[in-house]
Each structure stands twice: as C-alpha cells, then as structure tokens.
Write a structure and sequence with these properties.
Blueprint: H1 21-35, E1 42-46, E2 61-64, H2 70-80, E3 85-91, H3 92-98, H4 100-109, E4 113-119, H5 154-161, E5 165-170, H6 174-186, E6 191-196, H7 208-214, E7 215-217, H8 228-235, E8 242-249, H9 255-258, H10 278-281
The chain binds thiamine diphosphate (TPP) and iron/sulfur cluster.
The site of iron/sulfur cluster (SF4) has 11 residues, from loops.
C-alpha cells in the first residue's frame, strides 16, 4: 500500500467548509493508495465547476479542461496511452447537462475509464442554479417558483446506454465510497460512480441529514449486480429510501480491446516510424 500523503497536492482545496467534495477527494486518495496506483501512471481529467477543481488537489497528471468536455479529453488520452489509469471527475451540470452527449457515447464505447460525478443536484460554481439532477419543485436561483422539469436519472441512463459498471456513493460514507472507487478502477471498462455530494451553500433540500435518513447499502439487501432488470428497478428508487452501492457490473470487451490500432500496444510507447530520426532532433 502506498502512503496516502503521496496523493495529496500542495494546493489545498478551496471548497466551502462542509462541501461534500472533500469526502469525494479523500476517498479517492485512499482508494488509489490502497490500489497502489502510482501518480506517474494516473491521469485525472475534469471539466469546469467547483467539483471539477479536484485534479488540482490530487497528485497525478491532471487536465482541467472545458465545461462538459472532460470525457472526450479522457478518451483521447486513454487511446493515446491505454496503460494509464484514467479517472474523470466533475459535477452533474458538467456531465449530465452540457456534457450529456459525451456521457452517453463514452458509456456505450466501454472505454476503460472511471467517471466520478460529484452530484450535488445544483450548479455550485455559478452560485446555485438548477442542474439536470435538481428534483422537481425545488426552488433555486434560476427556478424561484420551483423546478418544473423532471430530473435526469444518471443510473438508469447509464444502464440504458450500455454501461458495464454503475454505482452510487455518498460522500458522508467515505469508507464505502473508497471501496466503490476501488471496484470501479479495477473494473475493465467504463465505470460510473455517481456520488451524492451535498452542496452545503446552495442546496438546502438534499443535505447531509436528508441523505443520512434515506441511504441504505445495496449489498445489505443481497442485490444481484449481474441482473440488468434488478439494477433498473433499484435505479428507480428515490425518495423515502436511496440505494447506494454497485447497481450493475458485467464484463464486456472494452473499446481498447476491439480497436485494431491498439493491437501493437500503447501508441505513446511506439517508435514514430520516421526513416530519418534526425528531423526530430531539429526540434529538441
Ligand atoms: C461553455 C460554458 N458554459 C457555461 C459555463 C458556466 N459554468 C461554469 S461551471 C457551471 C456549472 C457547474 O455545475 P456542476 O458541473 O454541477 O459543478 P459544481 O460547481 O456544482 O460542482 C457552469 C454552467 C462555462 N464555464 N462554460
Ligand atoms: S458552492 Fe457548493 S459545491 Fe461549490 S464549494 Fe461551495 S458547497 Fe461545494
């Protein structure tokens, strides 16, 4: 096991005191330490949002990109060097709003990437507008009389798109969350871990006490993670009880397995194939 301090950046998080994203970050550092993943073999990619600042607080390669575009960046990096452990982090606005198209297509391709969404059911960075996962009737800055749209259900959406690993965590359960990350990172294929990560500043409905009263662990109910039907049923459960844990996990060839261009190994580690290598030296 690697010392967890290895993954802690010199830059300290600037999230509001009590923000759920602290629990998400700590659990990720714990999971990587327990899996012994070296920072030099790890890339953390994000978009824009409070949650998307995470790569700055984590020691590994990092890419803080454009709002909603983390998954295409991660796809390119993974195909360029499949030997990297690629982890994507961001918010529900980033991933299920502006990034929704990328989300569905990355899921169906089954690239070997772990996607951690800090789902606070609101836009935090832009000061509290409704997001795709805001519950109907909730009042926010952009919906002063209450949201009139139905929320996106990330779990059933991922299952429908062909995901091979779908889980939900809660940042108030950091040890359970770290175990979910470990399972997701070890999983060969695309792994979604939607984490209920309360925004203590702008979401006054889905708070820590709200979740503590409702969450229960799927593993305590002997849920069959290989049954799509059972996963779909559990995905619809939201209200008096909120399930956390692994909803679904199956094996299927990854995009990398089936991509002929990767048959010779990691492109990043191949010789460039130039007859005259001296042309390269001109640029050094
Ligand atoms: C193309 C583009 N559109 C809009 C924005 C403004 N913007 C920045 S963050 C954000 C949403 C943040 O919400 P979320 O992704 O859920 O992250 P959180 O801040 O809640 O962690 C928006 C709309 C932007 N930066 N770029
Ligand atoms: S605004 Fe919300 S999501 Fe952003 S740092 Fe503060 S508590 Fe966290």
């Amino acid at each position: 096991m690697t010392d967890v301090a290895v993954y802690k950046s010199e830059v300290k998080p600037d999230w509001c005191p009590g923000c759920g994203d602290y629990g998400v970050l700590n659990a990720l550092q714990k999971a990587c330490a327990e899996l012994d993943i070296a920072p030099r073999d790890t890339l953390v990619v994000s978009g824009i949002g409070c949650s998307s600042n995470l790569p700055g607080f984590f020691t590994a390669y990092g890419f803080h990109g454009l709002h909603g575009r983390a998954l295409p960046v991660a796809t390119g990096a993974k195909l360029g060097n499949p030997d990297l452990t690629v982890i994507v982090t961001g918010g529900d606005g980033d991933g299920y709003g502006i990034g929704m198209g990328h989300f569905v297509h990355t899921v169906r391709r089954n690239l070997d990437i772990t996607y951690i969404v800090m789902d606070n059911q609101v836009y935090g960075l832009t000061t509290g507008q409704a997001s795709p996962t805001t519950e109907k009737t909730v009042k926010t800055k952009s919906t002063p009389t209450g949201t009139i749209e139905l929320p996106v259900n990330p779990i059933s959406l991922a299952l429908t798109a062909g995901a091979t690993f779908v889980a939900r965590g809660f940042s108030g359960e950091p040890n359970h969350l770290a175990e979910l990350y470990k399972k997701g990172i070890r999983h060969r294929g695309f792994a979604l871990i939607d984490v209920m990560s309360p925004c203590v500043t702008y979401n006054k409905v889905n708070t820590y006490p709200w979740f503590r009263e409702r969450v229960y662990k799927l593993e305590d109910e002997k849920h069959d993670v290989t049954s799509l039907e059972a996963a779909m049923q559990k995905a619809r459960e939201w209200g008096a009880r909120v399930p956390i844990g692994v909803f679904y996990q199956v094996e299927r060839p990854t995009y990398e397995d089936d991509e002929p261009a990767l048959a010779g190994g990691s492109p990043a580690k191949q010789p460039l194939g130039l007859k005259d290598q001296s042309v390269l030296l001109e640029f050094l």
